[in-house]
């Protein structure tokens, strides 16, 4: 696609809406501008995921890698997560997430990082209780970040990792000590939740 077409697309793209489905901001609709590869986790999948995490989300430190629209991290904050780090290499996505955080008056509970997931994990110092990994489909990005989380000691005790991939993709290879806890499919998406005991 030519640069001219990209510019035309950006000018004509209509805002889409993201709906928070549970917690403090339940039913709140947030507008975002679609971008290439931006694919917010569906309401159906988010509802199932946060049912799985219901006993653990309150007070958790969360990391939303490949955050895109921020759907997963914003949902986590709505449901009582203590803090969420949003990581995306598209500054436009992060500006929209920052705007949503301001409108929800929860900026102190979040940080936005304009970096690739790999670069962020190489310099990260914090640890997380829950990590959301929802990379663009077809680029085989998940395996590397899963192993970086483990190798760099970035998972707290009893941490959980959510992994979302396309049905047509080969499943990522996760660290051998991760325990598959949940595994479901919805349309063209496969999504899994791992328990990650400290090695």
TrEMBL record:
It catalyses: guanosine(966) in 16S rRNA + S-adenosyl-L-methionine = N(2)-methylguanosine(966) in 16S rRNA + S-adenosyl-L-homocysteine + H(+). PROSITE patterns: N6_MTASE. Keywords: Methyltransferase, rRNA processing, S-adenosyl-L-methionine, Transferase. Specifically methylates the guanine in position 966 of 16S rRNA in the assembled 30S particle. CDD domains: AdoMet_MTases. This is Ribosomal RNA small subunit methyltransferase D. The keyword Transferase applies. One of its GO terms (molecular function) is 16S rRNA (guanine(966)-N(2))-methyltransferase activity. It is an enzyme of class 2 (transferase). Pfam families: Cons_hypoth95. Belongs to the methyltransferase superfamily. RsmD family. Its EC number is 2.1.1.171.
């Amino acid at each position: 696609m030519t640069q001219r077409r990209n510019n035309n697309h950006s000018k004509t793209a209509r805002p889409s809406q993201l709906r928070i489905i549970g917690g403090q901001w339940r039913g709140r609709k947030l507008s975002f501008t679609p971008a290439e590869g931006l694919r917010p986790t569906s309401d159906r999948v988010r509802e199932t995921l946060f049912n799985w995490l219901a006993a653990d989300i309150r007070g958790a430190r969360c990391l939303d890698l490949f955050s895109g629209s921020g759907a997963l991290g914003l949902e986590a904050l709505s449901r009582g997560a203590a803090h969420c780090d949003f990581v995306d290499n598209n500054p436009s996505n992060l500006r929209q997430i920052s705007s949503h955080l301001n409108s929800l008056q929860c900026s102190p509970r979040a940080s936005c990082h304009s970096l690739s997931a790999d670069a962020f994990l190489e310099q990260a110092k914090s640890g997380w209780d829950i990590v959301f990994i929802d990379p663009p489909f077809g680029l085989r990005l998940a395996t590397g970040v899963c192993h970086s989380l483990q190798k760099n000691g970035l998972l707290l005790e009893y941490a959980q990792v959510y992994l979302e991939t396309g049905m047509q993709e080969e499943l990522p290879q996760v660290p051998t000590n991760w325990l598959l806890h949940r595994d479901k499919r919805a349309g063209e998406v496969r999504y899994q939740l791992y328990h990650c005991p400290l090695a």
